[in-house]
Amino acid sequence: MPGHDPAYHAKQKHKLMVLTSPLMLLGFLALPVLAAVYWLRSRSRRAVVSSLAFWIDQRRPRRGGRILHRMQAPLAFFLELLAIAMLVSAAAGPALLKRDVVRPLTVVLDDSYSMQARRGATSARDRAETALTEELRKNNYVARFILSGARPRLIGQTVRDPDRAEEVFTQWTGQSPTADLPAAITLATEVGDRTTRILVLSDQPPKMELESSQIQWWAFGEKLPNMAFTAATRNRGVENERVLLELACLADSPGQSKMNIRCSERYEVTTSLVELEGGATKQIFLDLPPDSPVLSASIDADALEIDNQVLLLPESAKPLRVSIDVSDKDLRRAVVHALEATGGTIVVSERPELVVCNKSGAINGDAWRMEILGDKEAAAYAGPFVIDHNNALAEGLSLQSVIWSASPKSQPAGLPIVMAGNVPLLTESEDAAGRRCLRMNLAPEQSNLHDSPDWPILFANIVKWRRGGLPGVAAPNVRLGQTLDVVLEKETGQVEVVSPDETTRKLEVHGRRIATSADRVGLHAIKTFDAEYLFSCNTISRDESDLTDCRSGCWGSWNESPIYQDRQVDLSWVFLVVAIVAMATHLAVIGKRDDGITEGS
């Protein structure tokens, strides 16, 4: 509590008086101007006249001019100085803080990787940290911090001493693929109360209107040109591997950069120069020999370095072991052709990982089953079909011009993936061991599904999905922030995760499956006592790499809210009263002097 914090009481002794508009202090420049007027007196010009009888005032005038004389400061001069000083002080907004005031503050930190963009020696994140540190030292805040990435979260402990904020800044890495600032602001309003100030630190201006005076938004970004990789994929084909790289010039003007692509000593491609118009993209396609090692592509350093390199690991070369137990010759031939088209399967009779059959049965071992169950009393359906596109099996399925014959009486167990009205055509279910059973309600003699492009697409999805359940890394190349699934060969209680910077952390494992987030760019490793699993994390986000909308500025004002103004006592009226008294006294002195001159004449 602040009442038990010695640093808190020390601050209160030195921060009782504040100025809400300190720039108004520039008005004190009028004081030397007034003094100069009194220092410079006019020089009278000699004139010869016959008589002084008709002159009202025979004294030499000394009310301004260009000749320097010894200053003869009357009382009016000091009254004028006092009036000006009091008016300027009142305009500066002097206020007296209450002794028991504590300013609760919640700081929202933009953790997106565009905060790393720099011009010169400092980045937007560096400038934001410096400004925040100065603000914490200048005012008596009790601060909490929210890290705004893809999902905002509270970090660190409540900070009362500005020096303790360094512990929070170490967690502000600026390596998130995006920043959900509206969600972070919502979280800030929930963890605080109506008197809690909210400060947002970002590199872009707010995209919504700041309706509440509870929020201030500080931006430290700059509009900078940037070239970045905006797409990178590596897929295994039948004979070789196919690589796609996309490079974008995210600027208003043309740009150029040298790009190097390396894979091994026997395969190296170097593109000396890539020139692009502003906003344009270029795609590079490569064919790699089978079993090629890690592919690395990089471009020259620019304002944002994190998106200048990609690393692509090869997909697993181990084919999926498939057993085909289909009695219908035509259907069996269609299944074999579809599996061959995937380029990643091998037909076996022992230890299968996927069983394709046309009869119901129990799941043996770790194999998945796909049951194609037909019925003579089938009806033909030409659509429209209801497809659950959130399911992995439905990726790329359209079922255009497909005639799917199925038994309307059959009700395959499991969740429906494809339906014709209320008739389930394809379902999937999972048992306690994680094994899946896919059931297809299909009469092939009356259907053309196995002759359409959707047939190989369906089997490619099945193979890909089944591969995700095999030991190893489901997708060795992931985007920053993406969740990674790893299936271990054996059960182990703990694994070691090695980051690209060689730091390690322990991760508890229940069963054989691990789900971890890729939160650092580069090559990662997951190690067990007898195996190692590698995956690569890349920054592939055109929106985040685009710096053309970055700006610097300040939006919102806490002073507009009466909630925060009642925590200080306004002293401007005191200075205004003194100024009024000084001006009234000045008028009286001037009037008395003028009356004396008139009477003496």
Q: What structural class do helix, strand and pairing data support?
A: alpha+beta
The whole-number mean of residue pLDDT values reads: 84
Unreliable residue stretches: 1-15, 63-68
The top-level CATH class of the largest domain is Alpha Beta
Shape: elongated
Largest sheet: 8 strands, mixed
What value does the Rg take, in angstroms? 39 Å
Total count of strands: 38
Helix percentage range:
10-25%
Number of helices: 11
> Please, what is the CATH homologous superfamily of the largest domain?
Class I glutamine amidotransferase (GATase) domain
Tally the structural domains. 4
Widest β-sheet, arrangement of strands: 20-19-21-22-28-27-26-24
Shape-level CATH architecture of the largest domain: 3-Layer(aba) Sandwich
CATH third-level topology of the largest domain: Rossmann fold
Separation of the first and last Cα atoms: 75 Å
Beta-strand proportion = 25-35%
Question: Which key terms come to mind for this protein?
Answer:
11 helices, 38 strands, 8-stranded mixed sheet, 601 residues, elongated, Rossmann fold, 6-stranded mixed sheet, 4 domains, 22% helix, alpha+beta, disordered N terminus
Give an overview in words.
The chain has 601 residues and is of the alpha+beta class. The chain folds into four domains: 2-44 and 56-98 and 571-600, no CATH class; 103-223 and 549-566, Rossmann fold, CATH 3.40.50.410; 320-466, Rossmann fold; 472-538, Macroglobulin (MG2) domain (Immunoglobulin-like). It has an eight-stranded mixed beta sheet with strand order 20-19-21-22-28-27-26-24. A six-stranded mixed beta sheet has the order 9-8-5-10-11-37, with helices on both faces. The protein has a five-stranded mixed beta sheet with strand order 30-36-35-32-33, with no helix packed on it. The two termini are 75 Å apart.
